[in-house]
Amino acid sequence: MKKELKKEIIFSSVIILFFAVMLSPLLIALSGSFRSPDNATSFLELFNQFSLESYKEAFQKMHYFRALKNSMITTFTSTALLLVIAALAGYALARLKTRMGGFLQIFFLAGMMISAQMSIIPIYSIMRFFKINSSYAAPIVMYITISIPFSIFVYTNFVKSGVPFALEEAAWIDGAGRMTIFTRIVIPLTKPVLASIVITQGVPIWNDFFLSMLFLSSSTKKTLPLVMLSFLGDMQKPTQWTMLFAACFLSALPMLIVYAFLQKQFVGGLTVGAVKG
Length: 277
Prior knowledge:
Blueprint: H1 2-33, H2 53-61, H3 64-95, H4 99-110, H5 120-129, H6 137-162, H7 165-173, H8 178-189, H9 191-207, H10 210-215, H11 224-227, H12 241-271
């Protein structure tokens, strides 16, 4: 018993130390965000001041509501279309028992190995050819394309392990059509994996900087990650760290709210099929 207790204490201590190290930058940033912009003391002196002045100035300088609207347009539109495509394709692949079904699963899975940055020049040329390179459509198309392989992969496996085919057969015998079965039976049962897709793919889209910078050059279309650049300094003007910290938390706040509402479904979508009984 003593050996087991010692092992448990050592293991718990290592876990606590690990999380303390990993969370320390976040804690420093949170402490710094509650300082006034003219507070030049070391950021290692945690919470030596409580002021909302940096949040107020960051809110105004970011044109927060305009940037928030831009981020919501790109993120929510991309995520909504992604859910529709992933659900339709994932369900079809899960119920397709031919060789073509296996080939298509491998085909979509192979898309996870290709980085968009590797082909950004031809992609930009294509967007420019269709004259959408400076519109919301360009990053939305890219976000959906990048996220489809993983989303279809997760949804297909969820349907195979979490949606009993007997329910669909019973509905089919009762006269329900394929679309009715999909919308009335499959979709309600796959809410956990849909929530998982929203979190795992929506957060990277929300935080994306590269594609937004490439396609949304207009100041009126910049998303939240782009407007935070205004707080970074150069040789003549130092970085406004307290306002940058405040801007980071203002940018993360909407996704934290979404996660708070979807966390139960998110955990369920990740753990389905982990235990067979």
